[in-house]
Design goal:
By secondary structure, this protein is α/β, with parallel strands linked by helices. Helix content is 23%, strand content 12%. It binds zinc ion.
Length: 366
């Protein structure tokens, strides 16, 4: 099945379900993968309409709650292509990574806010978001310790009404001015995504052809304590960072092989909304992973990554991100408010992912 089928606003139980792509060369369904990652963001944006224009005010809150996190919706062909690129990269490595133990990801947060201060997420809240990222990837809520940690290197703040009011249209401009580091650096943009999509991310496979777009953006109201009801624990950033490290949705490919290419996340026919505990939508064994960060459940429902996902993220890290240019390293930790002068290459040591010893071939099952 074509899970990423062109359905910007499918319906489920009579409610709209957000399935939009618009970021960094990803295009929902369609024939976007001609060049795998060569599609421009501009083209992608023409294929998606993140803001439903005719939404009646009645039921708006419910609709907002239904609007899930992002693009990251891939067709079966796109997912297969991305997996093929991963396998090609890993072919030359003797011992595929089993975990990312010790991989400290340099993190730069970019706050884009209105000139009147709307959206100017304060430093304390930025730190809370970083703490949530670290806790989630360490298995601190539930599930696997992925081995990834995130090291906040800098926070930039940009007051720009045009960017704030329509970030998608200005994304290329904004990112080209703001983005820091190489493939190994997570650039997290806190922006106004409008009323629909909560976040978007690029996949590691896209870095080579569109480095400037690399990163994660989330709506500023999804940060811990934000005003997005049901989506304000900071888990949108966790979900999007999962994509940034190569994960597909748990419902990728629905009940069809190879699912999400992770063998310890049960098959799932479609994205969850709310928290449908006990839901089991596919004939294969296992209930839907509604608590997995890569599903679309409400924030309070989410709590885990699996070991298989941890391994797959480690593989992507090793294949696409860890070997990044050492000259792009940022300033030393402990200086989050530093101004943005050019960095010296030898200021900070590289986060070196440790090769994992015991290879155990992953079964791309689902
Ligand atoms: Zn997603």
């Amino acid at each position: 099945m074509n899970q990423g089928g062109k359905a910007p606003r499918g319906t489920k139980n009579g409610k709209p379900v957000r399935t939009v792509a618009a970021w960094g060369g990803l295009l929902v369904g369609a024939a976007a993968l001609a060049g795998v990652v060569a599609t421009s963001a501009a083209q992608a944006q023409t294929g998606a309409d993140p803001a439903p224009p005719d939404c009646p005010p009645e039921g708006a809150a419910a609709r907002l709650a239904e609007a899930r996190r992002d693009d990251g919706m891939l067709s079966a062909e796109q997912a297969a292509d991305y997996d093929r690129l991963l396998r090609e990269k890993l072919r030359h490595q003797q011992a595929p990574a089993q975990s990312a133990d010790g991989a400290a990801v340099p993190l730069v947060v970019h706050v884009v806010h209105a000139e009147d201060g709307t959206g100017d997420v304060d430093d304390g809240t930025v730190q809370e978001q970083v703490d949530v990222l670290n806790k989630a990837f360490a298995g601190g809520f539930a599930g696997a310790d992925t081995g990834f940690s995130f090291d906040l290197r800098d926070v930039t703040r940009t007051a720009n009404d045009a960017w704030f009011e329509d970030f998608t249209s200005h994304a290329d401009e904004a990112r080209s001015q703001l983005r820091r580091g190489g493939a190994e650096t997570l650039n997290l943009y806190l922006v106004n995504m409008g009323e629909g999509v909560l976040g978007q991310a690029t996949f590691p496979q896209e870095y080579e052809t569109d480095a400037a777009a690399d990163g994660v953006m989330v709506d500023y109201r999804t940060v811990p304590g934000g005003s997005r009801e049901n989506y304000n624990l900071g888990y949108t950033a966790v979900h999007e960072t999962g994509h940034w490290l190569g994960l597909f949705h748990t419902f990728q490919n629905g009940c069809d092989r190879p699912g999400d290419y992770v063998d310890d996340t049960p098959y799932q026919r479609e994205q969850s909304s709310g928290c449908p505990e006990g839901s089991d939508t596919c004939p294969q064994r296992g209930a839907d992973p509604v608590h997995n960060f890569m599903d679309y459940s409400d924030d309070p429902c989410l709590n885990n990554f699996t070991r298989g996902q941890a391994r797959r993220m480690a593989e992507h890290w090793e294949a696409f991100r860890a070997g990044g240019d050492a000259a792009t390293r940022l300033s030393p930790p402990g200086d989050p408010g530093a101004p943005t002068e050019p960095r010296s290459p030898d200021q900070a040591p590289a986060p070196a992912p440790e090769p994992a010893p015991a290879p155990a071939p992953e079964q791309p099952a689902g």
